[in-house]
Amino acid sequence: MTMHLFPTPRHLTVTGGPAPATEAPITVDHDPALPAQGYRLEYGPGQVRLSYADAAGLRYAQQTLDQLRAQPTDRQHAVVVEDWPDFARRGFMLDVSRDRVPTRGALARLVEILALARYNQLELYTEHTFAYAGHEEVWRDASPITPGDLHWLEGQCLARGIELVANQNTFGHWERWLSHETYLPRAENVEPQSFAGLIRAPSTLAPTAENAEFVTELLTELTGNLRSRRLNIGADETWELGTGVSKDRAEAEGLGPVFLDYVDQVARPWTEAGYTVEFWADILTAHPEVIDRIPAGTVPIVWQYDSPEHMRAVAALMSESERTALLAHGTDPDEIMGFAPRAQALVDAGQPFWVAPGTGTWLSLIGRLDNAVGNILDAAEVGTAHDSEGFLLTCWGDRGHYDPPPVTYGPILFAGAVSWSLRANRDLDIAAALDGVFEDSAGELGQLLVDLGRVASNLPPVRNASPLFEVLRHAGALEPHQYPDAEQLTAARSVLTGALEALDRARPASADGPLAIAEIRQAVRWAIFAADLLASRVLEVDAAGEYVEPAGDPAAAQQLSDRLEVLLAEQQQAWLISARPGGLRDSLAWLDPLRHALLARSSDRTR
Q: Where is the Beta-hexosaminidase bacterial type N-terminal domain (predicted)?
Protein backbone atom coordinates (compact mmCIF):
# COMPACT_ATOMS: atom_id res chain seq x y z
CA MET A 1 0.00 0.00 0.00
CA THR A 2 1.04 3.63 -0.59
CA MET A 3 2.71 5.55 2.19
CA HIS A 4 0.91 8.73 3.27
CA LEU A 5 3.46 11.45 3.96
CA PHE A 6 2.65 15.15 4.26
CA PRO A 7 3.84 17.15 2.48
CA THR A 8 4.52 14.69 -0.31
CA PRO A 9 8.32 14.56 -0.71
CA ARG A 10 9.83 15.50 -4.06
CA HIS A 11 11.76 12.21 -4.16
CA LEU A 12 10.68 8.97 -2.47
CA THR A 13 12.25 5.71 -3.62
CA VAL A 14 11.11 2.30 -2.41
CA THR A 15 14.34 0.36 -2.08
CA GLY A 16 13.00 -3.08 -1.20
CA GLY A 17 13.32 -5.02 1.99
CA PRO A 18 11.71 -4.46 5.35
CA ALA A 19 11.47 -1.18 7.22
CA PRO A 20 13.83 -0.75 10.17
CA ALA A 21 12.78 -2.07 13.55
CA THR A 22 11.72 0.40 16.19
CA GLU A 23 15.01 -0.03 18.04
CA ALA A 24 17.16 0.29 14.89
CA PRO A 25 20.13 2.65 15.34
CA ILE A 26 19.93 6.16 13.87
CA THR A 27 22.93 7.79 12.21
CA VAL A 28 22.78 11.56 11.84
CA ASP A 29 25.17 13.46 9.54
CA HIS A 30 25.49 17.12 8.65
CA ASP A 31 25.90 17.42 4.87
CA PRO A 32 26.38 21.04 3.72
CA ALA A 33 26.24 19.88 0.10
CA LEU A 34 22.49 19.33 0.41
CA PRO A 35 20.15 22.17 -0.65
CA ALA A 36 19.21 24.66 2.07
CA GLN A 37 16.57 23.21 4.43
CA GLY A 38 17.03 19.89 2.66
CA TYR A 39 17.63 16.37 3.90
CA ARG A 40 18.16 12.78 2.84
CA LEU A 41 16.56 10.02 4.89
CA GLU A 42 17.46 6.36 4.40
CA TYR A 43 14.87 4.23 6.14
CA GLY A 44 15.89 0.65 5.62
CA PRO A 45 16.76 -2.75 7.02
CA GLY A 46 18.62 -2.47 10.27
CA GLN A 47 19.18 1.27 10.39
CA VAL A 48 18.02 4.82 9.81
CA ARG A 49 20.48 7.24 8.25
CA LEU A 50 19.62 10.91 8.31
CA SER A 51 21.65 13.59 6.48
CA TYR A 52 20.70 17.25 6.74
CA ALA A 53 21.79 20.60 5.33
CA ASP A 54 21.03 22.80 8.33
CA ALA A 55 18.85 23.04 11.43
CA ALA A 56 15.69 23.34 9.33
CA GLY A 57 16.63 20.32 7.26
CA LEU A 58 17.18 18.31 10.44
CA ARG A 59 13.75 19.34 11.71
CA TYR A 60 11.99 18.34 8.49
CA ALA A 61 13.91 15.05 8.34
CA GLN A 62 12.76 14.22 11.85
CA GLN A 63 9.19 15.12 10.89
CA THR A 64 9.34 12.70 7.96
CA LEU A 65 10.91 9.99 10.13
CA ASP A 66 8.07 10.37 12.63
CA GLN A 67 5.53 9.99 9.83
CA LEU A 68 7.29 6.93 8.44
CA ARG A 69 7.29 5.26 11.84
CA ALA A 70 3.58 6.04 12.24
CA GLN A 71 2.61 4.25 9.02
CA PRO A 72 0.43 1.14 9.46
CA THR A 73 2.28 -2.17 9.35
CA ASP A 74 1.12 -2.98 5.82
CA ARG A 75 2.60 0.32 4.57
CA GLN A 76 6.01 -0.11 6.17
CA HIS A 77 8.84 -0.60 3.65
CA ALA A 78 12.39 0.49 3.18
CA VAL A 79 12.57 3.86 1.43
CA VAL A 80 14.92 6.73 0.68
CA VAL A 81 13.47 10.25 0.93
CA GLU A 82 15.26 13.26 -0.54
CA ASP A 83 13.58 16.60 -0.03
CA TRP A 84 14.07 20.37 0.01
CA PRO A 85 11.81 23.41 -0.59
CA ASP A 86 10.95 25.37 -3.72
CA PHE A 87 10.59 28.61 -1.72
CA ALA A 88 13.11 29.46 0.98
CA ARG A 89 10.48 31.46 2.89
CA ARG A 90 7.01 30.00 3.22
CA GLY A 91 4.86 32.37 5.20
CA PHE A 92 1.31 32.69 6.46
CA MET A 93 -0.31 36.03 7.22
CA LEU A 94 -3.42 36.19 9.40
CA ASP A 95 -5.57 39.31 9.45
CA VAL A 96 -6.30 40.14 13.09
CA SER A 97 -7.69 43.62 12.37
CA ARG A 98 -11.04 42.89 10.73
CA ASP A 99 -12.69 42.24 14.09
CA ARG A 100 -11.57 38.63 14.76
CA VAL A 101 -8.59 38.67 17.14
CA PRO A 102 -7.77 35.02 17.92
CA THR A 103 -7.40 33.61 21.41
CA ARG A 104 -4.08 32.14 22.47
CA GLY A 105 -5.60 28.70 22.08
CA ALA A 106 -6.52 29.42 18.46
CA LEU A 107 -3.05 30.80 17.78
CA ALA A 108 -1.39 27.74 19.33
CA ARG A 109 -3.46 25.45 17.11
CA LEU A 110 -2.58 27.55 14.07
CA VAL A 111 1.13 27.27 14.81
CA GLU A 112 0.81 23.46 15.08
CA ILE A 113 -0.81 23.30 11.65
CA LEU A 114 1.75 25.69 10.12
CA ALA A 115 4.58 23.53 11.47
CA LEU A 116 3.00 20.40 10.00
CA ALA A 117 2.78 22.13 6.61
CA ARG A 118 6.40 23.36 6.90
CA TYR A 119 5.78 27.08 7.00
CA ASN A 120 8.70 28.97 8.46
CA GLN A 121 7.20 32.45 8.82
CA LEU A 122 4.07 33.85 10.49
CA GLU A 123 2.75 37.40 10.37
CA LEU A 124 -0.24 38.87 12.22
CA TYR A 125 -1.58 41.68 10.07
CA THR A 126 -2.40 44.64 12.31
CA GLU A 127 -4.07 47.95 11.74
CA HIS A 128 -5.49 48.91 15.13
CA THR A 129 -5.28 45.66 17.11
CA PHE A 130 -1.90 45.86 18.81
CA ALA A 131 -1.89 47.45 22.28
CA TYR A 132 0.42 50.36 21.53
CA ALA A 133 1.30 52.36 24.63
CA GLY A 134 -0.45 55.72 24.76
CA HIS A 135 -2.95 54.87 22.00
CA GLU A 136 -5.63 53.17 24.06
CA GLU A 137 -8.52 54.96 22.37
CA VAL A 138 -7.68 53.14 19.12
CA TRP A 139 -7.54 49.58 20.48
CA ARG A 140 -9.50 49.83 23.72
CA ASP A 141 -12.53 47.84 22.53
CA ALA A 142 -10.68 45.42 20.23
CA SER A 143 -9.23 42.86 22.69
CA PRO A 144 -5.85 43.57 21.07
CA ILE A 145 -2.68 41.54 20.76
CA THR A 146 -0.45 42.56 23.68
CA PRO A 147 3.32 42.48 24.11
CA GLY A 148 2.81 39.48 26.39
CA ASP A 149 0.88 37.73 23.62
CA LEU A 150 3.74 38.31 21.18
CA HIS A 151 6.34 37.00 23.61
CA TRP A 152 4.27 33.89 24.20
CA LEU A 153 3.49 33.38 20.50
CA GLU A 154 7.10 33.81 19.46
CA GLY A 155 8.02 31.04 21.88
CA GLN A 156 5.42 28.78 20.29
CA CYS A 157 6.79 29.61 16.84
CA LEU A 158 10.49 29.30 17.58
CA ALA A 159 9.98 25.88 19.12
CA ARG A 160 8.66 24.77 15.71
CA GLY A 161 11.10 26.53 13.41
CA ILE A 162 8.78 29.42 12.55
CA GLU A 163 9.85 33.07 12.55
CA LEU A 164 7.26 35.51 13.91
CA VAL A 165 7.50 38.67 11.81
CA ALA A 166 6.03 42.05 12.77
CA ASN A 167 3.33 43.34 10.41
CA GLN A 168 1.80 46.82 10.73
CA ASN A 169 0.15 48.73 7.92
CA THR A 170 1.73 52.17 7.77
CA PHE A 171 0.05 53.92 4.83
CA GLY A 172 -3.38 52.66 3.70
CA HIS A 173 -6.10 50.98 5.79
CA TRP A 174 -5.85 53.49 8.60
CA GLU A 175 -9.59 54.07 8.95
CA ARG A 176 -9.70 52.67 12.49
CA TRP A 177 -7.12 55.25 13.59
CA LEU A 178 -8.43 58.13 11.51
CA SER A 179 -11.95 57.69 12.87
CA HIS A 180 -10.65 59.34 16.06
CA GLU A 181 -10.21 63.12 16.18
CA THR A 182 -6.77 62.64 17.73
CA TYR A 183 -5.40 61.08 14.53
CA LEU A 184 -7.65 62.51 11.81
CA PRO A 185 -5.23 65.40 11.02
CA ARG A 186 -2.77 62.77 9.79
CA ALA A 187 -5.12 61.77 6.94
CA GLU A 188 -4.53 62.46 3.26
CA ASN A 189 -8.11 63.74 3.25
CA VAL A 190 -9.94 64.56 6.48
CA GLU A 191 -13.30 64.40 4.72
CA PRO A 192 -14.90 61.23 3.31
CA GLN A 193 -14.27 60.71 -0.39
CA SER A 194 -16.43 59.30 -3.17
CA PHE A 195 -15.19 56.25 -5.07
CA ALA A 196 -17.37 54.81 -7.85
CA GLY A 197 -20.49 56.15 -6.20
CA LEU A 198 -19.55 54.95 -2.72
CA ILE A 199 -18.48 57.20 0.13
CA ARG A 200 -15.33 56.08 1.92
CA ALA A 201 -14.22 57.37 5.30
CA PRO A 202 -10.62 58.62 5.52
CA SER A 203 -8.30 55.62 5.35
CA THR A 204 -4.93 56.78 3.99
CA LEU A 205 -2.17 58.55 5.87
CA ALA A 206 -0.73 61.63 4.22
CA PRO A 207 2.78 60.81 2.95
CA THR A 208 4.54 63.30 5.19
CA ALA A 209 7.77 63.17 7.16
CA GLU A 210 5.76 63.66 10.35
CA ASN A 211 3.63 60.59 9.63
CA ALA A 212 6.72 58.55 8.74
CA GLU A 213 8.20 59.47 12.11
CA PHE A 214 4.92 58.60 13.84
CA VAL A 215 4.67 55.12 12.34
CA THR A 216 8.38 54.58 13.04
CA GLU A 217 7.59 55.04 16.72
CA LEU A 218 4.86 52.40 16.44
CA LEU A 219 7.12 49.99 14.57
CA THR A 220 9.87 50.47 17.13
CA GLU A 221 7.49 49.41 19.88
CA LEU A 222 6.12 46.46 17.88
CA THR A 223 9.45 45.07 16.71
CA GLY A 224 10.91 45.49 20.18
CA ASN A 225 8.85 42.49 21.24
CA LEU A 226 10.31 40.14 18.60
CA ARG A 227 13.68 38.68 17.63
CA SER A 228 13.05 38.71 13.90
CA ARG A 229 15.01 41.08 11.69
CA ARG A 230 12.15 41.29 9.22
CA LEU A 231 9.20 43.63 9.06
CA ASN A 232 6.10 44.07 6.87
CA ILE A 233 5.01 47.72 6.55
CA GLY A 234 1.96 47.08 4.33
CA ALA A 235 1.37 50.15 2.13
CA ASP A 236 -1.41 48.66 -0.01
CA GLU A 237 -4.63 50.22 -1.28
CA THR A 238 -3.78 53.86 -0.60
CA TRP A 239 -7.08 54.91 -2.12
CA GLU A 240 -6.95 58.67 -1.46
CA LEU A 241 -3.27 59.19 -2.25
CA GLY A 242 -2.76 62.23 -4.45
CA THR A 243 -6.19 63.71 -3.78
CA GLY A 244 -5.56 65.77 -0.63
CA VAL A 245 -2.36 66.70 1.20
CA SER A 246 -0.19 65.19 -1.53
CA LYS A 247 -2.29 66.39 -4.49
CA ASP A 248 0.00 69.18 -5.67
CA ARG A 249 3.10 67.04 -5.41
CA ALA A 250 1.42 64.10 -7.16
CA GLU A 251 0.35 66.36 -10.03
CA ALA A 252 3.87 67.76 -10.34
CA GLU A 253 5.93 64.58 -9.88
CA GLY A 254 3.50 61.70 -10.40
CA LEU A 255 1.77 59.36 -7.97
CA GLY A 256 4.50 56.70 -8.21
CA PRO A 257 7.30 58.86 -6.76
CA VAL A 258 5.02 60.15 -3.99
CA PHE A 259 4.14 56.59 -2.99
CA LEU A 260 7.65 55.19 -3.14
CA ASP A 261 9.28 58.14 -1.38
CA TYR A 262 7.02 57.60 1.63
CA VAL A 263 7.66 53.85 1.62
CA ASP A 264 11.38 54.65 1.59
CA GLN A 265 10.99 57.04 4.53
CA VAL A 266 9.21 54.38 6.56
CA ALA A 267 11.56 51.57 5.55
CA ARG A 268 14.91 53.36 5.75
CA PRO A 269 15.43 53.27 9.55
CA TRP A 270 14.89 49.53 9.42
CA THR A 271 16.95 48.68 6.34
CA GLU A 272 19.80 50.76 7.76
CA ALA A 273 19.52 48.69 10.94
CA GLY A 274 19.84 45.47 8.92
CA TYR A 275 16.17 44.55 8.64
CA THR A 276 14.52 43.21 5.50
CA VAL A 277 11.32 45.19 4.90
CA GLU A 278 8.35 43.73 3.05
CA PHE A 279 5.64 45.87 1.44
CA TRP A 280 2.66 45.21 -0.84
CA ALA A 281 3.34 45.81 -4.52
CA ASP A 282 -0.11 46.78 -5.86
CA ILE A 283 0.52 50.54 -5.99
CA LEU A 284 4.11 50.06 -7.12
CA THR A 285 3.32 47.82 -10.08
CA ALA A 286 0.73 50.34 -11.29
CA HIS A 287 3.65 52.77 -11.67
CA PRO A 288 6.46 50.83 -13.35
CA GLU A 289 8.36 54.05 -14.00
CA VAL A 290 9.64 54.01 -10.40
CA ILE A 291 10.45 50.32 -10.02
CA ASP A 292 14.15 50.99 -10.56
CA ARG A 293 14.03 53.13 -7.42
CA ILE A 294 12.86 50.40 -5.04
CA PRO A 295 14.90 50.92 -1.86
CA ALA A 296 17.65 48.44 -1.11
CA GLY A 297 16.69 46.02 1.64
CA THR A 298 12.99 46.04 0.77
CA VAL A 299 10.94 43.28 -0.88
CA PRO A 300 7.77 44.00 -2.89
CA ILE A 301 5.06 41.36 -2.44
CA VAL A 302 2.73 40.76 -5.38
CA TRP A 303 -0.74 39.76 -4.21
CA GLN A 304 -3.66 38.32 -6.13
CA TYR A 305 -6.60 36.44 -4.61
CA ASP A 306 -8.58 34.96 -7.48
CA SER A 307 -7.40 32.26 -9.85
CA PRO A 308 -7.01 33.13 -13.55
CA GLU A 309 -9.83 30.75 -14.41
CA HIS A 310 -12.18 32.32 -11.89
CA MET A 311 -11.36 35.85 -13.02
CA ARG A 312 -12.02 34.99 -16.65
CA ALA A 313 -15.47 33.76 -15.60
CA VAL A 314 -16.06 36.90 -13.54
CA ALA A 315 -14.95 39.25 -16.33
CA ALA A 316 -17.26 37.55 -18.82
CA LEU A 317 -20.28 38.48 -16.69
CA MET A 318 -19.13 41.74 -15.13
CA SER A 319 -21.55 44.65 -15.43
CA GLU A 320 -20.54 48.17 -16.37
CA SER A 321 -21.03 49.33 -12.78
CA GLU A 322 -18.71 46.60 -11.52
CA ARG A 323 -16.07 47.58 -14.08
CA THR A 324 -16.42 51.23 -13.12
CA ALA A 325 -15.95 50.40 -9.44
CA LEU A 326 -12.77 48.42 -10.16
CA LEU A 327 -11.32 51.12 -12.38
CA ALA A 328 -12.05 53.74 -9.71
CA HIS A 329 -9.89 51.74 -7.34
CA GLY A 330 -7.02 51.52 -9.80
CA THR A 331 -7.74 48.00 -11.07
CA ASP A 332 -8.33 47.15 -14.71
CA PRO A 333 -10.63 44.09 -14.78
CA ASP A 334 -8.96 42.92 -17.99
CA GLU A 335 -5.51 42.90 -16.39
CA ILE A 336 -6.09 40.88 -13.22
CA MET A 337 -6.07 37.40 -14.66
CA GLY A 338 -3.31 36.04 -12.47
CA PHE A 339 0.12 36.59 -11.01
CA ALA A 340 1.96 36.83 -14.31
CA PRO A 341 0.44 40.17 -15.40
CA ARG A 342 0.52 41.50 -11.84
CA ALA A 343 4.25 40.80 -11.59
CA GLN A 344 5.24 41.62 -15.17
CA ALA A 345 6.62 45.09 -14.45
CA LEU A 346 8.85 43.69 -11.71
CA VAL A 347 9.97 40.84 -13.98
CA ASP A 348 10.80 43.31 -16.76
CA ALA A 349 12.89 45.36 -14.35
CA GLY A 350 14.69 42.30 -12.96
CA GLN A 351 13.38 43.12 -9.49
CA PRO A 352 13.01 40.21 -7.04
CA PHE A 353 9.56 39.82 -5.51
CA TRP A 354 7.43 37.53 -3.37
CA VAL A 355 4.06 36.07 -4.29
CA ALA A 356 1.02 36.21 -2.00
CA PRO A 357 -2.09 34.19 -2.83
CA GLY A 358 -5.03 33.82 -0.44
CA THR A 359 -6.99 31.19 1.40
CA GLY A 360 -10.12 32.34 -0.47
CA THR A 361 -12.12 32.09 2.75
CA TRP A 362 -13.06 35.69 3.52
CA LEU A 363 -16.45 36.95 2.25
CA SER A 364 -17.48 33.32 1.82
CA LEU A 365 -18.66 31.80 5.15
CA ILE A 366 -17.48 28.30 4.12
CA GLY A 367 -14.59 29.00 1.75
CA ARG A 368 -14.00 28.96 -2.01
CA LEU A 369 -11.64 26.02 -2.19
CA ASP A 370 -11.37 25.50 -5.96
CA ASN A 371 -10.56 29.16 -6.43
CA ALA A 372 -8.00 29.03 -3.61
CA VAL A 373 -6.32 25.98 -5.14
CA GLY A 374 -6.10 27.68 -8.54
CA ASN A 375 -4.85 30.91 -6.99
CA ILE A 376 -2.20 29.10 -4.91
CA LEU A 377 -0.99 27.06 -7.88
CA ASP A 378 -0.78 30.20 -10.02
CA ALA A 379 1.30 31.93 -7.34
CA ALA A 380 3.63 28.96 -6.97
CA GLU A 381 4.10 28.61 -10.71
CA VAL A 382 4.95 32.29 -11.24
CA GLY A 383 7.10 32.40 -8.12
CA THR A 384 9.16 29.36 -9.02
CA ALA A 385 9.49 30.52 -12.64
CA HIS A 386 11.14 33.72 -11.42
CA ASP A 387 13.09 32.27 -8.49
CA SER A 388 11.05 34.12 -5.86
CA GLU A 389 12.45 33.67 -2.39
CA GLY A 390 9.11 34.01 -0.66
CA PHE A 391 5.56 32.70 -0.76
CA LEU A 392 3.11 34.36 1.68
CA LEU A 393 -0.36 32.85 2.00
CA THR A 394 -2.82 35.46 3.25
CA CYS A 395 -6.02 35.05 5.22
CA TRP A 396 -8.02 38.27 5.33
CA GLY A 397 -11.13 39.03 7.35
CA ASP A 398 -13.08 41.53 5.27
CA ARG A 399 -16.52 42.50 6.57
CA GLY A 400 -16.33 40.90 9.97
CA HIS A 401 -14.36 37.67 9.42
CA TYR A 402 -17.35 35.31 9.47
CA ASP A 403 -15.37 32.30 8.25
CA PRO A 404 -14.10 30.34 11.29
CA PRO A 405 -10.51 29.00 11.53
CA PRO A 406 -11.28 25.37 10.47
CA VAL A 407 -12.48 26.64 7.08
CA THR A 408 -8.98 27.97 6.43
CA TYR A 409 -7.12 24.78 7.28
CA GLY A 410 -7.53 23.14 3.85
CA PRO A 411 -6.00 26.06 1.93
CA ILE A 412 -3.28 26.38 4.59
CA LEU A 413 -2.28 22.74 4.21
CA PHE A 414 -2.39 22.88 0.41
CA ALA A 415 -0.37 26.09 0.16
CA GLY A 416 2.21 24.84 2.63
CA ALA A 417 2.67 21.65 0.63
CA VAL A 418 2.76 23.41 -2.75
CA SER A 419 5.22 26.08 -1.60
CA TRP A 420 7.43 23.26 -0.30
CA SER A 421 7.31 21.29 -3.56
CA LEU A 422 4.94 22.32 -6.35
CA ARG A 423 5.60 19.28 -8.51
CA ALA A 424 5.09 16.74 -5.75
CA ASN A 425 2.01 18.33 -4.16
CA ARG A 426 0.03 19.76 -7.06
CA ASP A 427 -2.55 16.98 -6.70
CA LEU A 428 -2.51 16.77 -2.91
CA ASP A 429 -5.48 14.99 -1.33
CA ILE A 430 -6.68 17.88 0.82
CA ALA A 431 -9.43 15.84 2.51
CA ALA A 432 -6.90 13.23 3.67
CA ALA A 433 -4.56 15.94 4.96
CA LEU A 434 -7.44 17.49 6.92
CA ASP A 435 -8.40 14.12 8.39
CA GLY A 436 -4.84 13.88 9.64
CA VAL A 437 -5.11 17.27 11.32
CA PHE A 438 -8.37 16.42 13.06
CA GLU A 439 -7.51 12.75 13.63
CA ASP A 440 -11.03 11.91 12.54
CA SER A 441 -11.52 8.15 12.84
CA ALA A 442 -14.84 8.45 10.97
CA GLY A 443 -13.13 10.11 8.00
CA GLU A 444 -15.84 12.76 7.76
CA LEU A 445 -14.36 16.18 8.54
CA GLY A 446 -11.80 16.34 5.76
CA GLN A 447 -14.20 15.55 2.93
CA LEU A 448 -16.90 17.64 4.55
CA LEU A 449 -14.70 20.75 4.53
CA VAL A 450 -13.65 20.07 0.95
CA ASP A 451 -17.28 19.67 -0.14
CA LEU A 452 -18.27 22.87 1.65
CA GLY A 453 -15.40 24.74 0.05
CA ARG A 454 -16.55 23.67 -3.38
CA VAL A 455 -20.15 24.89 -3.02
CA ALA A 456 -19.13 28.31 -4.35
CA SER A 457 -17.72 26.73 -7.51
CA ASN A 458 -21.25 25.81 -8.60
CA LEU A 459 -22.68 29.28 -7.98
CA PRO A 460 -22.31 32.39 -10.19
CA PRO A 461 -18.70 33.65 -10.10
CA VAL A 462 -18.08 36.73 -7.98
CA ARG A 463 -14.77 38.53 -7.67
CA ASN A 464 -13.02 37.89 -4.36
CA ALA A 465 -16.19 36.58 -2.69
CA SER A 466 -19.02 34.05 -2.75
CA PRO A 467 -22.65 34.94 -3.52
CA LEU A 468 -23.47 33.30 -0.19
CA PHE A 469 -21.76 36.13 1.66
CA GLU A 470 -22.44 38.88 -0.85
CA VAL A 471 -26.20 38.50 -0.44
CA LEU A 472 -25.72 39.18 3.28
CA ARG A 473 -23.24 41.99 2.77
CA HIS A 474 -25.39 43.83 0.22
CA ALA A 475 -28.69 43.24 2.02
CA GLY A 476 -29.94 41.02 -0.76
CA ALA A 477 -29.46 43.51 -3.57
CA LEU A 478 -26.99 41.85 -5.95
CA GLU A 479 -26.23 42.30 -9.62
CA PRO A 480 -28.74 40.22 -11.63
CA HIS A 481 -26.03 37.86 -12.88
CA GLN A 482 -24.91 37.13 -9.32
CA TYR A 483 -28.16 35.39 -8.34
CA PRO A 484 -27.93 31.60 -8.63
CA ASP A 485 -30.72 29.80 -10.44
CA ALA A 486 -33.06 27.38 -8.69
CA GLU A 487 -31.06 24.31 -9.74
CA GLN A 488 -27.80 25.75 -8.41
CA LEU A 489 -29.41 26.65 -5.09
CA THR A 490 -31.02 23.25 -4.72
CA ALA A 491 -27.65 21.58 -5.26
CA ALA A 492 -25.93 23.95 -2.82
CA ARG A 493 -28.55 23.41 -0.16
CA SER A 494 -28.22 19.64 -0.55
CA VAL A 495 -24.49 19.82 0.17
CA LEU A 496 -25.03 22.15 3.11
CA THR A 497 -27.71 20.05 4.80
CA GLY A 498 -25.64 16.94 4.13
CA ALA A 499 -22.72 18.63 5.89
CA LEU A 500 -24.80 19.07 9.04
CA GLU A 501 -25.51 15.35 9.02
CA ALA A 502 -21.83 14.53 8.42
CA LEU A 503 -20.84 16.71 11.38
CA ASP A 504 -22.94 14.45 13.58
CA ARG A 505 -20.98 11.44 12.31
CA ALA A 506 -17.50 12.97 12.69
CA ARG A 507 -15.29 11.60 15.45
CA PRO A 508 -12.25 13.88 15.68
CA ALA A 509 -9.69 12.90 18.30
CA SER A 510 -7.75 16.19 18.10
CA ALA A 511 -8.05 18.37 21.18
CA ASP A 512 -9.94 21.05 19.25
CA GLY A 513 -12.20 18.58 17.43
CA PRO A 514 -15.49 19.32 19.24
CA LEU A 515 -14.83 23.06 19.05
CA ALA A 516 -14.09 22.83 15.32
CA ILE A 517 -17.36 20.97 14.78
CA ALA A 518 -19.28 23.72 16.59
CA GLU A 519 -17.63 26.45 14.51
CA ILE A 520 -18.17 24.63 11.22
CA ARG A 521 -21.80 23.96 12.14
CA GLN A 522 -22.43 27.67 12.68
CA ALA A 523 -20.77 28.53 9.34
CA VAL A 524 -23.00 25.98 7.58
CA ARG A 525 -26.10 27.45 9.22
CA TRP A 526 -25.11 30.87 7.90
CA ALA A 527 -24.62 29.41 4.43
CA ILE A 528 -28.03 27.72 4.46
CA PHE A 529 -29.63 31.01 5.52
CA ALA A 530 -27.80 32.81 2.70
CA ALA A 531 -28.96 30.21 0.17
CA ASP A 532 -32.56 30.65 1.32
CA LEU A 533 -32.22 34.43 1.14
CA LEU A 534 -30.93 34.13 -2.41
CA ALA A 535 -33.78 31.81 -3.34
CA SER A 536 -36.43 34.09 -1.84
CA ARG A 537 -35.21 37.23 -3.65
CA VAL A 538 -37.34 39.18 -1.19
CA LEU A 539 -34.86 42.07 -1.30
CA GLU A 540 -34.18 42.14 -5.05
CA VAL A 541 -34.44 45.66 -6.44
CA ASP A 542 -34.56 47.13 -9.94
CA ALA A 543 -32.39 49.89 -11.38
CA ALA A 544 -34.58 52.51 -9.68
CA GLY A 545 -34.15 50.88 -6.28
CA GLU A 546 -37.69 49.56 -6.13
CA TYR A 547 -38.45 46.03 -5.00
CA VAL A 548 -38.88 43.63 -7.89
CA GLU A 549 -42.31 42.01 -7.98
CA PRO A 550 -43.31 39.35 -7.51
CA ALA A 551 -40.46 39.01 -5.09
CA GLY A 552 -41.04 37.02 -1.93
CA ASP A 553 -43.93 38.30 0.12
CA PRO A 554 -43.57 40.20 3.40
CA ALA A 555 -44.30 37.02 5.35
CA ALA A 556 -41.24 35.36 3.81
CA ALA A 557 -39.16 38.40 4.75
CA GLN A 558 -40.46 38.13 8.32
CA GLN A 559 -39.44 34.48 8.53
CA LEU A 560 -35.95 35.32 7.26
CA SER A 561 -35.74 38.21 9.69
CA ASP A 562 -36.58 35.91 12.60
CA ARG A 563 -33.98 33.37 11.46
CA LEU A 564 -31.36 36.10 11.14
CA GLU A 565 -31.91 37.20 14.73
CA VAL A 566 -31.37 33.64 15.93
CA LEU A 567 -28.19 33.31 13.87
CA LEU A 568 -26.81 36.59 15.21
CA ALA A 569 -27.41 35.39 18.77
CA GLU A 570 -25.76 32.04 18.01
CA GLN A 571 -22.85 33.83 16.35
CA GLN A 572 -21.97 35.46 19.65
CA GLN A 573 -21.41 32.03 21.19
CA ALA A 574 -19.62 30.55 18.16
CA TRP A 575 -17.32 33.59 17.91
CA LEU A 576 -15.96 33.13 21.42
CA ILE A 577 -14.80 29.58 20.67
CA SER A 578 -11.62 30.87 19.05
CA ALA A 579 -11.83 34.67 19.03
CA ARG A 580 -11.59 37.33 21.69
CA PRO A 581 -14.72 39.32 22.52
CA GLY A 582 -13.44 42.76 21.49
CA GLY A 583 -14.34 42.70 17.80
CA LEU A 584 -17.63 40.84 18.11
CA ARG A 585 -19.89 43.87 18.18
CA ASP A 586 -18.21 45.38 15.11
CA SER A 587 -18.42 42.07 13.27
CA LEU A 588 -22.14 41.71 13.93
CA ALA A 589 -22.70 45.33 12.87
CA TRP A 590 -21.70 44.51 9.29
CA LEU A 591 -25.09 42.79 8.94
CA ASP A 592 -27.13 45.71 10.28
CA PRO A 593 -28.18 46.79 6.76
CA LEU A 594 -29.53 43.29 6.14
CA ARG A 595 -31.42 43.30 9.43
CA HIS A 596 -33.00 46.65 8.64
CA ALA A 597 -33.86 45.67 5.07
CA LEU A 598 -35.62 42.48 6.13
CA LEU A 599 -37.54 44.30 8.84
CA ALA A 600 -38.61 46.95 6.36
CA ARG A 601 -39.68 44.39 3.79
CA SER A 602 -41.56 42.36 6.37
CA SER A 603 -43.56 45.51 7.09
CA ASP A 604 -44.18 45.86 3.34
CA ARG A 605 -42.29 49.12 3.12
CA THR A 606 -40.22 50.08 0.10
CA ARG A 607 -36.98 52.05 0.00
A: 28-84
